[in-house]
Hints:
Elements: E1 3-8, E2 15-19, E3 31-36, E4 39-51, E5 62-65, H1 68-94, E6 100-106, E7 112-118, H2 126-136, E8 139-144, H3 147-154, H4 165-168, H5 178-183, H6 190-193, H7 208-217, E9 224-227, E10 230-238, E11 243-248, E12 253-257, E13 262-263
Parallel strand pairs: 7-8
Antiparallel strand pairs: 1-2, 1-4, 3-4, 3-5, 6-7, 9-10, 9-13, 10-11, 11-12
Helix pairs in contact: 1-2
Amino acid sequence: MPFVVGIQFRKNCKIYNFNATGFEDLARGDYVVVETERGLEIGKVIVPPREIANVEAPLKGIVRKATPWDLVRMDFYRHKEGEALAKARQLAREMGLSIKLVKAEYNFEGTKLTLFFTSEGKAEFKEFVRLLEEELGVKVELFSIGVRDEAKFIGGIGPCGRLLCCASFLTEFDSVSIKMAKIQDLPINPAAISGLCNRLLCCLRYEFETYKDFKERLPKVGQKIKTPKGEGKLVAINIVKETVTVQLEDETTVELPAEQVEILKG
C-alpha cells in the first residue's frame, strides 16, 4: 500500500493528497516541494504519511523536503503578491475593464502569477493579460471564482460576530440547502440566513444532522402524546435541551425530557 500525505499550499485552503513513498518520516508542520499544474510549489504537511489501500488515481510524488532557502524564496514572492495585485488593478482601471481582481498568487518559483477574479458577464481579457505580463515579466493566468471564494479570500465578520468560517478554518465548501434552515426552525428570511457572500450560511449544516436525527425520533408538533403527567398535545421542541413542551388536557403546559413522551396510537 502506498504512503499518502495531506499537503496544504495556503492557509485554510483545500488539502491535497500526494504520494509520500520515500518520505515516510514527514511530520505535521513540515514543508515540502511538490510538482503541481502550476509548476513547483511549497506545501505544508497537514496530514502525516499514512498507508491507504485504495487510491483512486495515481498521485504525484514529493520532489524534496523544503530547505531554508526554499522557505525564504517562498516568503519573498508572497510578499510581492500585494504589489502585483495593486498593479493589476491599476491596469484594469486604466483599460476600463469590468473585472474585480480579488487575490494574486505567485507560484514557488516566481515564474507564474495567478489572478483570482470575479466579473459580470463574459469579457475578453487577452490584451489585459498581455500588457500585465510585459509589466511584471512573468506569465499571468486569470482564474474566475465565485462569491463564496471571494468572501474566503477577503474575509470579514459574520452575523455571529466572529471571523467568517470560510476565512478562518473551512478548507472546502460543502453544499448548503434551504432544507437545513427549515429543519432547524429558522426564519426563512434571506437576510437572516445568508452570509456576506449572499449565499446560505455555511454554518447551517453544522447542526443539521443533529436536528434531523432528533426530529425523526420525536413526534411532530401538534400530535397527541402520552406523558408521565397525562395525555396532551406536543406544542414545541427544544433541540438544544432535548426537551418537549406539552399542552395537557387541562390546558396547562409542561416541559419534559424528550425520552419521557410517546405518540398516542389510534
